[in-house]
């Protein structure tokens, strides 16, 4: 017969097993709103694949994050605002502790509901710089909104090639941009031109037949360098048309990346084309081998074998790392019970990934140190310059820091304009020198 002590021990073991099962039965629910279809599908599918593959690798290899599985719920929005709002509502009802919208319009539309529901947004939207200001939008995190910083990195790179910032004075640095581009980006480039004395001709692209006239004008009076600020299909079209009018590829530099198929199609004519990125391209990192082993080779990925390491896929990896590390951070801070939205916001606002941690993650050289704060929800990451050699990307320069003074000055102006246009905008509930409640 079992002793009373043994019975008590057995009962305790059963209770612990049930407790463990209860914890395991409550995964961390994340909602990924995707553009796998529609006008942004060329970018959206690859970003979504990168995010899913990294998080699924953690599930398969480690049993999740901190012993808790991550449940990624995808909802296709196809760049449609109404579908996006419906997806958010479904995510809220499903208990998501974070929602990741893919574009600027949807991010803006979700600012108020996410704050009401205390669900942080990890936005993938370029051209939404105010989403990096935690004092104004405390529930929005936007590491992608770095066009302002990216422009300063571009100018720093061109200055280095010319022999210093003082050598920019006699240069012409043009910008070909989609007409929907953030006005703050144009203002930032004008600020830099005024400060360093270079000319900055601006070429608005309407995505119509009239663009042919714009590219012909560029071909007739080419600037010394041309920055491309398009996205999705437009990014690739800009490259094709620039090469068609004879603009040299090695004087083109992009802030938003074209599909690599465009560059492969260009053949040797595309050699020397450059891009600015907050992370490296390619898959020569141990973490990618782990993804292949635990996800791709097991048939758990939607990524084709040739898709790993592609520019937009790596952007998804980058964002997934930030998210996973923020979850770890929230767990370390000892939030009781299941992770909630406010816990994850706290994890994001105190996120710091240094070079040592990137190496521990199997991503040494993939990106450089980045940190968020209560005020800074974008991280001000440095940039890499990547160059296309006709078949693949190679590192050309970096890391190059942002000109933080210029970026912050423009952000202050963006905030002032936003608050002026939105009187009564609610102030952050708690000051930045206090932890979120």
From TrEMBL:
SUPFAM superfamilies: Periplasmic binding protein-like I (SSF53822). Keywords: Signal. Residues 1-24 form the signal peptide. Transmembrane segments: none annotated. Residues 28-388 form the Leucine-binding protein domain. It holds the Pfam family Peripla_BP_6. InterPro entries: Leu-bd, Peripla_BP_I. It comes from the Bacteria. Belongs to the leucine-binding protein family. This is Leucine-binding protein domain-containing protein.
